[in-house]
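Dear Dr. H.,

I hope your travels went smoothly. While you were away I took the liberty of generating a structure for the chain from your last submission, since the lab meeting agenda had it listed for discussion. I wanted you to have the full record in hand beforehand rather than looking at slides cold. The sequence, exactly as received, is reproduced here:
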Amino acid sequence: MDSNHQSNSQPLEEIQRLQAELAAITLMTEKRATELSISEERFSLAMRGANDGLWDWNLETDEVYYSPRWKSMLGYAENDLKNDIKTWANLVHPDDKDIVLEKVQDYIHGRKNSFEVEMRMRHKDGHEVFVLSRAFLVTRESDNKAVRLVGTHVDITERKNAEAFDSKYAEILEMIALGRPASDIYDAIALMYESRHPGMRCSMLELSGNKLLHGGAPSLPKEYCEAVHGLENGPSVGSCGTSTFTGQRVLVENIETDPKWEKIKHFALPHGMRCCWSEPIKSSSGKVLGAFGMYYNHPALPNEKELKDLISAARLTGIVMERDQAQKRIRTLAYTDELTGLASRASFIQHMEEVTKTSFRHGRRFGLLYLDLDNFKSINDSLGHAAGDLLLKTIAKRLRNTCRDIDFIARLGGDEFCILIEEVEADYAANVAKRCLEAISQPLEIYSRKLMPTCSIGIAYYPDDGNDLSTLLKAGDTSLYTAKENGKNQYAFYKMELTQKAEYRFQIEQNLREAIEKQQLSLAYQPQIEVSTGRIFGFEALSRWHHPELGQVSPIDFIATAEKIGMIKPLTEWVLKTACSQLIAWKETGIHALRMAVNISPSLFLNKEFVSLIKGIIEETGIVPSELVLEVTESIVQTDPRNLSIFEDLKDLGVSLAIDDFGIGYSSFASLKHLKVDYLKIDKLFVADMLVDKQALTLISSMIEMGHRLGYGIIVEGIEYLEQFNILRSLGCEKVQGYLFSEPVSADKIAKFFVAHQYTNWTK
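The corresponding predicted structure, in token form, is as follows:
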């Protein structure tokens, strides 16, 4: 029994032992479960307290758990995102994705001992969230294989923005220190504060007098900036206008309803601007310089951070604006003559250096006028310096009114002025000098004293008189004193012959108008000879001008001047009437079967009223239209339909037409074949060389043959030798003129000449 009892007790003890072990295990499991629960609760509380997002990546299944905070950090609700790796891949910034994955692989495969990386992720509303990601590996105890990667996301956007802001702030301070343009700094300031507040747009307006001027607003529409630029500040000119007017902060919650925006809200509302907060920009002394504005596309008032930034932005902008205004004042003092408002000597030197470089590069010419008032010292001595200053101001004003806008005028000091003229045309410098002399010499009254100021002017040209600054200034100064030595109240070129030529041309210009209006010019007539018979078949009328002081003035000079001063039409009209009337008068004396040739200026020929002018002269004088030959240079012989129509209209009147100076202009055979003309008049240039130059002879021969083939008559001018005449006759030339037959003579000599030479046989 004892043995049986012993044998039965052994299983029971084993069961009791096992039950005890099971109870111990259960207790331990419960304890561990409790500890785990507590740990999880603590972790959850810790994660919640740290405001971190938890993620758990199963490396074997590729499933990912994202905690609610992980999702809300990016603006998403619990059920908005799938728990897989693609969710992260779609939200991470493309530029950061490869870097993060590379660091993950380095950590998983043991190349790195830890995992920590910063990356950008896209928020639901579109902006970027900076995230700090940390993680650790979970491995299986059996084979030490990585099975999970567990980590956290921390939103570090505010820290990163603060770092970026501090960096940008430092850059702006550097821009200020380096003296960068204010407009560039204004834009940088605006963008810096806009980056801190997504959706915000900033602007800076500068107060100039009573007007608001655009300073910087890189994110605002150009149309809005242009609309507010130039507005007067006031209590109802938006937030910024009110702020600059009152010197106080202005916070407008709703632009559409606020009375301060009533007059100008139509500028802002179309561009989505709904609120505007403005802080006055002030100098270190408290003077209002402008206003800094912040805009949103929704009605709002600033929170604490936005208000702090508004004040900070206005202060920073104030530093830039005050510095910029100080620099402008310095530049004004340095480059503007304080008394006259003209450019200063320093400004003139700088400008002249730039123009010299540009002119050298492009092969251009420019002129320098050096002016000095005559007897200015006596005015200062007799009336005082205040009177002298008033005179200088008046002179400066007169110079500005005399010159073109592109001419650069400067006061060099004392009573010396300089004018730099670019794009110089012939005689322009002399004309400017003449106008300056006339303008300055106008009488004026200062302190009840009537003054008659005068000046002397020296003229020098680049590069003719100097190809560098100092040489050119010296040339101008030298020519100035030449003018003074010649009697003052006049101008002089650095080269005397230029002075004489300019003065001569100016005298022509001054006297020509009167000569034309009073018909003080005369006509001379050169016979035109028919080669086959030796008979006179016509005359060319040539204008002449004998001035009592200037003497015989060359037609080249006064006709060009007539073109310049707009007198070519009355001059030509007089020539036509006189020549046609003379031909009628000769007819009455028995001289018949003649033609009268008159040169016509290209500018007048192409005038739309020219045909009517010719028609009127034919009717007034009674000349037979075919007896009037109009000579026009070949420079207008182009395929322009307008030119061709004028030829046709004149031919319809019955007049004869000739192309003058043929061979030296720009006509082409293609153009000639369309023209209704009667004669080609070969220029004397070819005739002069035909006896010694075979090429010239060949050209004449070719032109005669070509003219005949096209159906034109040929007139050759400039015949001086019988040998020339004989050669032209052999080439088939029909008509000639030149000194061999007669020089141009007056009308009263024509009758005698006609009788004496009408039947001269030039062919012998």
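Two observations you may find useful: The longest strand covers residues 128-139. Confidence is low (pLDDT under 50) at residues 38-49.

With kind regards,
E. W.
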